[in-house]
Each structure stands twice: as C-alpha cells, then as structure tokens.
Amino acid sequence: MINRPRRLIIYIMLVFFPLLTVFAQSSAKKAFDAQKYEEAVEAWNKLLEENPDLKDIHYNQGNANYRLGDLDEAIGSYEKALSLKDKNALADVYYNLGNAYLNKQEVEKARDFYKQALRIRPGDQDAKANLELLNHMPPPPPQDQNSEDGEDDKEKQDKQDKQNKDEQKDSDSQDENEDKQEEQQQDQEDSEGDEEDQQDQQQSQDEQDQGEQEQQEQQPSDGEELVNKEELMNAQQLLDALKDRETENMREQIRLKTSGKDNEKDW
C-alpha cells in the first residue's frame, strides 16, 4: 500500500512573490529534503505569518507534519489547502488526506478521500491501488462491549478516586483548621490562667503589704515605747507612794487608838 505524501508544491514565481518569499520557500524545501522536518515546519509557519494567502504552503506544511507523525496537524494543514485551484495539486491533497486517515485507522474517511482524488484525476494509480486494497479489507471488528464496560468502569474508578482524594483533602484541611482552633483556644486559656495567677499573686502581695502596714501601725515606735515606760514608772511610783501613805495613816490610827486606851486606864 502506498501511503507516502505526494510531492511538495514549490512555486518560484518572481512576478507574484517577492524575492525573500521565494528564498524562504527554497530554504524550507531544502530542510524538508534533508529530512529536517521540524525546521521545515518552522520555516513554513513563519512564511505563513508573513503571507497568509499562500495556500500551497499549507500543503507543504501538512507533508512535513505527516513525516513527523503528527497526523492531526497534517490533516489540519491539508484541509486548509483544499482551496487550491490547481487540479493536480488538489488531487494530491485528497490523496494525502486519505493516507493520513488510513494511518489513523479511520478506514471510511480514507476511502472517501481516495475516491475524491480519483474523481479529479482518474488515472491516479496510487489512489486506485489504495482504494482497491481498502475494498478487499474485512470490516473492522465491532468494539468489544466488555472493553467499553471496562473503559466505563475505569472512568468511574478514576472519578471515584479523584472524589476520594478531594474528600480526603477537605478532611485534612478541616482537621488542620480544628487543630489550629484548639491550639488558639488552649493559648487563650493559658493566657487567661497566667493573668489569674498574676492577679492572685498581686492580691496576695497587697494583702501581705496591708498586714505589714497594720502591724507597723499597731507596734509603737521607740519613742512612743520609751514614753509609755516612763508613764508606767511614774504610775508605779505614785501607787507606791499612796501605799506608803496609807500604811503610815494606818499606823497613826493604831497609835492613836493605843494611846487612848492607855489614857483610859489611867483614869
């Protein structure tokens, strides 16, 4: 089966394109011929930015992407080249689209594009050979229902795993928030406990200071204590004097009484 991309379309027409454009086309073609396909794609991309109306560049770009194995990019470039006016170039576009879809194992699309190429160019032997080969190929087997169910189960499992991860993440975040709240509450309680201890210590200190002050007020000073002692001594001396005087008076009374009795006898 022939499924290689057809020739590049390089128009070197000094009448229609500036010299720099022709030079860029030639440089891109040299990169393609040297199998430097990425370099060729970059060169044609730059050329399209400067000259978006050059439809043939899309075709060349599609061939480079095809050689790189980027079939989706190749198909996109080929489809943009379907507005080419040249019939042979357009037949090549359809043929290469058929090859691209055939490599993607999309047989029906490949068959349709080979037919389009033959309508434009009936003598295309490559398109005929590929179409004949496709017509003799057995139809693709139906997709296994178990495989579909397996894919559905896998998709469901992936969704469930993602949901479990999200729930676990939310749970971890909630636990972290609760831990932070408990830590903040514990810090607040510790702070309040420290304040209460400080208040108790301050109250105890105030009570102690007040007791010492009252004790100091109750205890006389040295001067006051000396005065009190002198007053006590004077009072004691006064009491002793009174006692002596009382004793003397009693003695005098006894003497007088005794003296009276004697006189009474004398009588």
N- and C-termini, Cα separation? 193 Å
CATH architecture of the domain at 19-135: Alpha Horseshoe
Indicate the radius of gyration in whole angstroms: 62 Å
What is the CATH H-level superfamily of the domain at 19-135? Tetratricopeptide repeat domain
Question: Into which percentage range does the β-strand content fall?
Answer: under 5%
Biggest pleated-sheet summary: none
Give the H and E element order.
HHHHHHHHH
Low-confidence stretches: 9-20, 261-267
Mean of the pLDDT scores? Answer: 76
- Apparent shape: rod-shaped
Could you please describe the fold and organization of this structure?
- By secondary structure, the chain is mainly alpha-helical.
- It contains nine helices and no strands.
- Helix 5 (87-103) runs antiparallel to helix 6.
- The radius of gyration is 62 Å and the shape is rod-shaped.
- It starts with 18 loop residues before the first helix and ends with a helix.
- Mean pLDDT is 76; it is low at 9-20 and 261-267.
Short structural description:
The chain is mainly α. The chain has helices at residues 19-33, 37-50, 55-68, 71-80, 87-103, 107-120, 125-135, 145-218, 222-266.
Core attributes:
mainly alpha, disordered C terminus, 0% strand, Serine Threonine Protein Phosphatase 5, Tetratricopeptide repeat
